[in-house]
Amino acid sequence: MAVFLYLCHMEKENVIFGIRAIIEAIQAKKEIDKIFIQNEANSELMKELFKTIKQHNLNYAYVPVEKLNRMTTQNHQGAIATIAPILFQKLETFIDNLVEKNENPLLLILDQLSDARNFGAIIRTAECTGVDGIIIQKTGSAPVNGDTVKTSAGAVFNIPICKVDHIKDAIFYLQGSGITTVAATEKTEQSIYDVNLNQPVAIIMGSEDRGINPSVLKIVDQKAKLPMFGTIGSLNVSVACGAFLYETVRQRSL
């Protein structure tokens, strides 16, 4: 019931419409999740908005006006922004504090996972398995919206999430902080069951269709996969993530 009530509240409070209002929200450093812009809109004010979006490296998409009209009945001027219902953590501060107080941190990195429901399911599993924090990229990642909140069963409010400009930079920072990075990928012969997860570790999951970016795979400490015994070659990303996290729990409970 609490999650449902929050969703009702969020629908009213977490949407900004109007070009000038969105520009002001960006300049005020609001946690903008995504900006929806009407196809072929090219007014001078819209150009100013687009310039501001680029300067702040924000996630945006061009959509038909019909979609904007479904999102609000107000005069949106061809632009609507959604605001995250949570406050994102600053990576460096979060990691420094975590390493100082936790001898065996467990982190989860999502490399441009784009489906909000998969994101919510992963957050729920992460919270249940004791993950200390989740790291996502500002662009290309699923938003924290109503679908995310609902699918996570409210777990999104219980686990810190860091938003970074580039996943690779986050990985370098983790490695410099003594945290081993393990990528979930089919492009390896090593099973997850052969990886030592009873140490400071960050597990990396890729997008639903492309997996982990090749440039990310080049810099991780280890790669691991789940053994497959059927004719289907892969699992849904949220299911695979659950298997990786529960193997971590198993190893740490021995």
From TrEMBL:
Looking up Pfam families in the UniProt record yields: SpoU_methylase, SpoU_sub_bind
Which part of the chain is the RNA 2-O ribose methyltransferase substrate binding domain? 15-89
Biological processes annotated in GO = methylation; RNA processing
Query: InterPro entries, from UniProt?
Result: Alpha/beta_knot_MTases (IPR029028), Ribosomal_eL30-like_sf (IPR029064), rRNA_MeTrfase_TrmH (IPR004441), SpoU_MeTrfase (IPR001537), SpoU_subst-bd (IPR013123), tRNA_m1G_MTases_N (IPR029026)
What's an example GO cellular component term for this entry?
cytosol
Going by the UniProt record, its keywords in alphabetical order are: Methyltransferase, Transferase
Task: Please state what the protein is called.
Answer: 23S rRNA (Guanosine2251-2'-O)-methyltransferase
Give any GO molecular function from the UniProt entry: RNA methyltransferase activity
Judging by the UniProt lineage, the source's domain of life is Bacteria
**Cell membrane: is it a keyword of this entry?**
no
The organism encoding this protein is Flavobacterium croceum DSM 17960
